[in-house]
Amino acid sequence: MSFLKLRLVAGAAALVVATSVGASISSPVLAAGPQLEISYDTVGEVDNSGRLVGAYAYNWGDELASDVTMTFDASGLRDIDISVPDWIDHCQLDRQIVTCHLPALAAEHTEWTHAFELKSKQQSKPGPAGTVKGTIRAFGPDGTEYTGGGDLEVSIVESGPDLVAFTADINSADDPVGGGDVRPVRAAIYNDGDTPAGDWYVQISVPTGAGIVERYSDCEYRDWWPGEHPDGYVYGPNVVTCPAPADLDPLAGGEGLNFADETGRSLFHVAFGKNLRGPDETGGAVQVGFVDDLEAERAPSKLTRKGSSGKTFADAVAELKPTTRAASRREGNTANNWAGFAIWTKPNTHDFAITAEPVSGDIGDTVEIPYAVINNGPSDGGASWTFKAPAGTVLVRDDEYDGPWCNFSDEDGHPVKELSEVSCSTESEFPAKASGYQGVKEKMKLRIISTPGNDGTLRVRTYPANADPNPANDEVELVVTVGGSGGGLPVTGANAAFLGGIGGGVVAIGAALFFFARRRRIVTFSE
């Protein structure tokens, strides 16, 4: 089918749509000169999620229409915002009027285009909202101006509930927190929609080194590093999820709950342990949503538990008075269900230690060097470590384990089989051993080419920088000998040490570490 025929088919289909929106389109009787008209590709029902509107420009006449301009006047609408998305480059907005330009309309031709977007304001009353007045102007071959039109009747429909989370930073850079400190979480939730919101939940998340103080018996708690920990160390609860009490009235449009008051009293507080790393800027979040949406996000059961105190979240909420705020003049957006807060931390120290066993083999052999990296604390942190192969040897990539720990890439980023120097790292979190995580226990493959030198090293670098007061155990020599005096290990199959060494905790919390990385700076370790 030709392009012209396609457009004629689209024009015919538009007649049906135009009839449904009340645009008066007569039968396309051929007329002398351009005969112009506008219709729309959608009905005019609008809520605060927005509706993109496209327009059909018709030339029913027998002559070319050039320099075509369409204007859409929304100044008569109530509680409706009109806008032009950035990607529509042929239309411009001037206050409440949109102007779109087309080069020309051939005789008996229809042109369709995206034109504008309509959104109702928050908490707008449903019902008729007015008319978008459409006008089309163009010039005939002799320079005569021709005009036409087509209006869009607009009505506001219910948008439904729109839950929004609010919070504030826990502290400031001038007032950092450390082990033993407790701070309130300032959080609030509102319903910015136009219908009541019931069966909601609120969820608060804090990073490693911090924990939620309140243990409401009707709330659910998650720990990234479950188990018993030494005094002074805090490893959770890292997430608390509390459902709306069953007897609480739904939040009406514009109504909400503030979980903290001006005096600093709050339904939620966060405590910090001696393992909180710093100085750093980390953070957490407040999230609100509907209980029906929780199941897909539920954590593994071994990381989840109920609160143990006698007080309930329902009791605490019962003491609050619903608050209201002025209707927001922004679009409804589910991204507003989440709000982050920053936490600035005091300087802290950690003691990372690295070890490597001596190995031996014959020239031409590939051996495996067992090594370990541990964080003795007290602070959690981050680490990378670098292998420098002794002269006469080369480090070899393990084809059976191509994980993210060690980077075998050349200067251009291309993967390679062998290198003389290789850097490795963990996720952004490397907690202290007080968490129960016993560090990295791995093997590195090395091929002996000739008699090995004594210049090989394995060195760990830590983050935050300069937080390790004991650099003596940050570097060891890689001892490789020929002939069997070093206890060399043969090349094996699957890397069982990796499968067992890292522990189930890291696997279970991978998603959580990524979540908190949103608030952390990215750290690159280099020479």
Using the alpha-carbon principal axes, give the shape. flat
Helix/strand/pairing category: mainly beta
**Average pLDDT figure:** 82
What is the CATH architecture descriptor of the largest domain?
A: Sandwich
Strand content: 35-45%
| Oligomeric description of these chains | single chain
Question: How many alpha or pi helices?
Answer: 5
| Proportion in helices | under 10%
Terminal residue distance: 64 Å
What kind of sheet is the major sheet? 7 strands, mixed
**What is the count of distinct domains?**
3
Task: Write up what this structure looks like.
The protein is 8% helix and 39% strand. With 527 residues, the chain is mainly beta. It folds into 3 domains: 3-156, Sandwich (Immunoglobulin-like); 163-345, Immunoglobulin-like; 350-517, Sandwich (Immunoglobulin-like). It is flat and about 100 Å long.
Can you give me a brief rundown of this structure?
The chain has 527 residues and is mainly β. Strands 2, 4, 6, 7, 9, 10 and 11 form a seven-stranded mixed beta sheet that branches. The protein has a six-stranded antiparallel beta sheet with strand order 22-17-18-15-21-24, with no helix packed on it.
Task: Name the descriptors.
Immunoglobulin-like; mainly beta; 527 residues; disordered N terminus
Write the layout of secondary structure elements.
Blueprint: H1 3-20, E1 36-40, E2 45-46, E3 51-59, E4 65-73, E5 80-83, E6 91-94, E7 97-105, E8 109-120, E9 127-139, E10 145-149, E11 152-156, E12 163-167, E13 182-184, E14 187-191, E15 200-205, E16 210-212, E17 220-222, E18 239-243, E19 255-258, E20 269-272, E21 280-290, E22 304-306, H2 313-318, E23 323-324, E24 338-345, E25 350-356, E26 359-361, E27 366-378, E28 382-388, E29 393-396, E30 406-407, E31 418-419, E32 421-425, E33 440-448, E34 457-463, E35 475-477, E36 480-482, H3 496-501, H4 504-508, H5 510-517
Parallel strand pairs: 2-11, 26-36
Antiparallel strand pairs: 1-3, 3-8, 4-7, 4-9, 5-8, 6-7, 9-10, 9-11, 12-14, 13-20, 14-19, 15-18, 15-21, 16-20, 17-18, 17-22, 19-23, 21-24, 25-27, 27-33, 28-32, 28-34, 29-31, 29-33, 30-32, 34-35
